[in-house]
Design goal:
- The chain has 9 helices and 6 strands.
- It has about 250 residues and is of the alpha/beta class.
- A 6-stranded parallel sheet has the order 3-4-2-1-5-6, with helices on both faces.
- The structure holds 3-methylbut-3-enyl trihydrogen diphosphate (2 copies) and magnesium ion.
Length: about 250
């Protein structure tokens, strides 16, 4: 069973988000503003990843999920796509030791079949090397799309339970959730998108059902620990009703 589905039961929540999911956007504009190639923004963005992993670890976040490459990002110029792939490889090679030191378990979700053999092997090796860490689970969404996730989960469920194909009414949310790519994590409490756009861009569309959505104009390469604090302060001010009324919430406390 997946953990704490927000639609099947009201989840317990605290002042600090257990799971933070971030769309790291604005790398290209950060670079363009400085008359640099867009790729310079992606390279600088890696430093922001390091800062945010550390800041979330220190603040007691249990799951941090970062959108690194969407299923639609293949539409970009070939040169930019290939720089992003090389950067992913280089970062995996360089950073895994640091993740172990920080107690970070790494998971990569998305349709990995599109990546070359070397990258797939590196991903597996990094996941294995960090598998026993338990302070923070860092998930990188790579060639990930929310629609892909829902479809692959349905296909996997049907493969495991072919009887459902002829009895579709028997299928419910609780049966599907264990097959979603992030079944090991609770649903995100807080979603952050940097770069000023206010959209989901095919990120975790199933899992964001009751997530608090925070948007900031800050470009990803400029995102710092203090920006995490600002997002968390905003989060603490939200009333997470999950369909109930304010009066019902007040009566419980
Ligand atoms: C996000 O920054 C990084 C990826 C999508 C890989 P962008 O590259 O989308 O930057 P902008 O939105 O063009 O500024
Ligand atoms: C979303 O950003 C994907 C990642 C950050 C990896 P995009 O820059 O691709 O999103 P759109 O195209 O502006 O919606
Ligand atoms: Mg963008």
């Amino acid at each position: 069973m997946s953990q704490s589905s927000s639609t099947l039961a009201v989840p317990t929540t605290g002042p600090t988000p257990r799971h933070v999911a971030i769309i790291m956007d604005g790398n290209g504009r950060w670079a363009t503003q400085r008359h640099l190639p867009r790729t310079a923004g992606h390279i600088r963005g890696v430093q922001a990843v390091r800062r945010v992993v550390e800041a979330c670890g220190r603040r007691g976040v249990e799951y941090l999920t970062l959108f690194a490459f969407s299923s639609e990002n293949w539409r970009r110029p070939a040169q930019e796509v290939s720089l992003l792939m090389r950067l992913f490889v280089r970062t995996l090679e360089k950073e895994v030791g640091r993740l172990v030191e920080q107690g970070v378990r790494l998971r990569v979700v998305g349709d990995l079949s599109a990546f070359d053999e070397k990258l797939r092997r590196l991903i597996l090796a990094a996941e294995e090397r960090t598998a026993d860490q338990s302070a923070l689970t860092l998930t990188i969404a790579a060639n990930y799309g929310g629609r892909w996730d829902i479809l692959q989960a349905i296909r996997a469920l049907w493969a495991a339970h072919p009887e459902l194909i002829s009895q579709p009414d028997k299928m419910d949310e609780a049966m599907l959730e264990p097959w979603l790519a992030m079944a090991y994590a609770p649903e995100p409490d807080l979603f952050i998108r940097t770069g000023g756009e206010q959209r989901i861009s095919n990120f975790l569309i199933w899992q964001l059902a009751y997530t608090e959505l925070y948007f900031t104009d800050c470009y990803w390469p400029d995102f710092k620990a203090q920006d995490i604090d600002a997002a968390f302060a905003w989060y603490r001010g939200r009333e997470r009703r999950f369909g109930r009324t304010s009066a019902q919430l007040a009566a419980r406390s």
